[in-house]
Amino acid sequence: MKTQPTPAAPGTAPAPSSRVRRFTRAETWVHRTTAALMGVCVATAACLYIPTFAELVGRRELVVRVHEWAGLLLPLPVLAGLASRAFRTDLGHLNRWGPHDRVWWRAVRRRDHRRSARPAAKFNAGQKTYAAWIAGATLVMLGTGLLMWFTHLTPLKWRTSATFVHDWLALTIGVVLGGHIGMALGDPEARRGLRTGWVSREWAEREHRLWRP
What we know:
Distance between the termini: 5 Å
Structural class: mainly alpha
Number of strands: 3
Oligomer: single chain
Largest sheet: 3 strands, antiparallel
Helix content: 55-70%
């Protein structure tokens, strides 16, 4: 693991390394930018579909335009992140499944909260599942959103179906994102890793003991 040393007090021997590098600056930028755009999409969608919020905000046409452009820009941070070798490597980790991931899910189904029962490499099975699902959902939302936007290019039946899928998938995304945020709030060290790129060695060995960068 890449490490960052802890400064030693004057006159003492250097302390052993206590932190490890989890994400590079490029990776934290991709996450923050994607989260910001997703937040704009969710907030503007709420203003468009929930009457109370719509009355508070008003200016529906402006909200629609902000929602559309935030949705169009949503894939761009990930595409830009492909220029980073570390980001491409982490995409490989997210797409690589092993026997330990099945063990992790079995422990979740049994509600076994022992860390020894939930082995994980750099990303656990839940994080891999979430990443795959949100990536697919984003592409579907982009496609259905374009069908709804360019109304003169598609027949009415397509637009009606796209609206149905877009609306219900948006609700599902809101619920899943709520769960994702809730899990993050329960793990300050994971949030620190996304914010600074560094996590404690103790946390890494406890939560991701199969991680060998």
